[in-house]
Amino acid sequence: MQSSNLPNERRAGDHDRLLQWIDEAGIRAKGIVEIAQARHRDVDQARDGFDELAREAREHQSRLAQIQEAMRQVDTVLQSIRGIAEKTNLLALNAAIEAARAGSAGAGFAVVADEVRRLAGSVTHTVQSAGPIVDGIQVSVTDAAQAYERFSAMVDRRVAEMGGILDGLASIQERVDANRELFGRIAGGVREVAGAP
């Protein structure tokens, strides 16, 4: 009689082992879902950080554009000052000529004209000295703006990549959830067939 119970006992052991494996698979699937959810949150936070970096980069680009415009205006003002200094120098020269024509009566006026001409020369020299400085600042600001533009584009690409990763993690999570549900149904079916509780 024992030999006739042996296949049933073996079958019951196989069913128990199968149920155990299915339960283990369900537990592992749950663990995978939890890991995927945690990575999803991590990547989502990283994407938010990159979004913030992108916003900051665009804000800095805007500020650099404002600085570029201000530097163009400074250059325009310097050109105007240079023009005024050149005209003042010509007026001082003409005044000196007229003072020389006036003779001793124009001697005081000649001193003033000479001082005005020296002042105009000093202004011209100062403006010429400022020109390369302004040009250097404009080049630096343009380089910085281009660097921020490249950085912003790189951040935007990374944000898009993270969106793809998030979509992939969500897809994995959905599939693992579906497999977990399937394992549960299989375990229920095996229990039903085996008459287990």
Automatic annotation (TrEMBL):
<feature type="domain" description="Methyl-accepting transducer">
    <location>
        <begin position="1"/>
        <end position="197"/>
    </location>
</feature>
<comment type="similarity">
    <text>Belongs to the methyl-accepting chemotaxis (MCP) protein family.</text>
</comment>
<dbReference type="GO" id="GO:0016020">
    <property type="term" value="C:membrane"/>
</dbReference>
<dbReference type="InterPro" id="IPR004089">
    <property type="entry name" value="MCPsignal_dom"/>
</dbReference>
<protein>
    <submittedName>
        <fullName>Methyl-accepting chemotaxis protein 4</fullName>
    </submittedName>
</protein>
<dbReference type="GO" id="GO:0007165">
    <property type="term" value="P:signal transduction"/>
</dbReference>
<dbReference type="InterPro" id="IPR004090">
    <property type="entry name" value="Chemotax_Me-accpt_rcpt"/>
</dbReference>
<dbReference type="GO" id="GO:0004888">
    <property type="term" value="F:transmembrane signaling receptor activity"/>
</dbReference>
<dbReference type="GO" id="GO:0006935">
    <property type="term" value="P:chemotaxis"/>
</dbReference>
<dbReference type="Pfam" id="PF00015">
    <property type="entry name" value="MCPsignal"/>
</dbReference>
<feature type="coiled-coil region">
    <location>
        <begin position="43"/>
        <end position="70"/>
    </location>
</feature>
<keyword id="KW-0175">Coiled coil</keyword>
<keyword id="KW-0807">Transducer</keyword>
